[in-house]
Amino acid sequence: MFNRKKGMSNKLWYILWELIAAAAIAFIILATLNTIITKNTFWKKYYSIDLALMADIENINQGDFVMNYNLKEDIDPTLKRYLLLPNNPLFIGLNNFSVDVYEEENGKMKNPTTYAFSKSKNIFVEESLTSSKFLVMSKKGNVLKLSDYDIDTSDICPSYETSGNIGGMKIYSYYNGNNIKSYSDTAQALLNRYGSKGNNASKVMLYYEANINTTIYYSDDVNTLKSQKLACIIKMKLQEKLNNDILLKKYDKSLDQYFGMYINNANEFWVIIKISDENLKEINNNDYAVLIEKSYIEFFT
Amino acid sequence: MKLNKKSQIQYFLWNFLRITIAVVGLFAFIIMVNFYVNNKIDSRLLQAEVLSNRILYSDMITVQDPKTFRVYSGIIDMNKLNDSSVLDQSMPYMFRKHVAAKIKIYGQDVQGKRVFLKEVYYNKEQWDYWTVLLKNNIYGKGSASQIIKEFPVTCAYDKDINRFNYCILVVEVIVPNS
Q: Which of B10, B33, B57 sits opposite A62 (nearest CB)?
């Protein structure tokens, strides 16, 4: 049948149309998959099961219970990248009888994955819908709730995963006045033992003013969670040395004139510590330096 | 177009080859999607563990101090088991096909043999349904799996734990396969 030219030509057209049909079918399958599967498909199921089982445990109703829960950053690429699968933000819902994990697409909650838990008759569930990389599930008294981590009101430091090699990160210490230069320099001398020069550098900045409330600022950028954790660790250690209360606050750009050049467009996490005359009498430069070093070590442990 | 025998065989072989390649391509596609889009999480054992521990450590069937509300884990309040719906009331469920359980309490006679004392169901309707499937060895996604756990406990017959004996708590949990 391939011996004649007309026969060969017909056959080629036939194969061509077959290839076009195969491509169309493949495209339809991929498009359908794209609507069902996203980069979050596995994790939605994982988080709903994991959190619902945790809620089940909290419903045992023996004493108070606080759990910090860190959601994974991302997902393995490979085929999903080639399939152009969307990576939508996740919303975690806690209801009376289940944990629901939604994806947000164009402002709408869609494709929830649900896993049930058994609510104790004595427990009141505070229904919520939360979107955060770091969650807190707590049962205090008879109230079970799921929320963002609120560092300003929390009694404990966040426990999200920051373990790693402290030697892999350069740490710089800065200051704003000559009377705290020795504090910053001593800290820098200790911190020089870690890391090598590079673009990724963490910074700890010391700000002095005669009469101010002791405050530690954490960043309001992509590294907020890390910055919060470091600020909280420093606060806990500093609190043991000082007599006054220490505030933890989100940075409000009030010290940009002193530290703006270090923190604007920073690649890594940083904190600013505001101390007063009174504080300088309670902690000397060596204690401050050791405290900062220990805080970083704890952060990376 | 009429084909001679030789052409017919060629035509058949040609189509056979094309269909074979198409089938292989389709299977490769399905395997690749299954490989990369991993959506399988088997939480059955964990779910059963959580439920059985919850029964043991919560105030559902254990002795609880009426003043301090302290729960004595591992000390079973036998009076609570007189109510056959004690588990359903303590752990109401929204989804019937989520989990079912049965707890059995065994004592011991003078020869050390187990003596059945009491049993209570959780989600009994679903338990009966799944039990039929399990007894008939029906497997697959529509069926369920059973996990049995035993705990040595104390059976108390009053709130002050003056009258008690040593028992075995057997928790049988059935969870769906999917």
A: B57
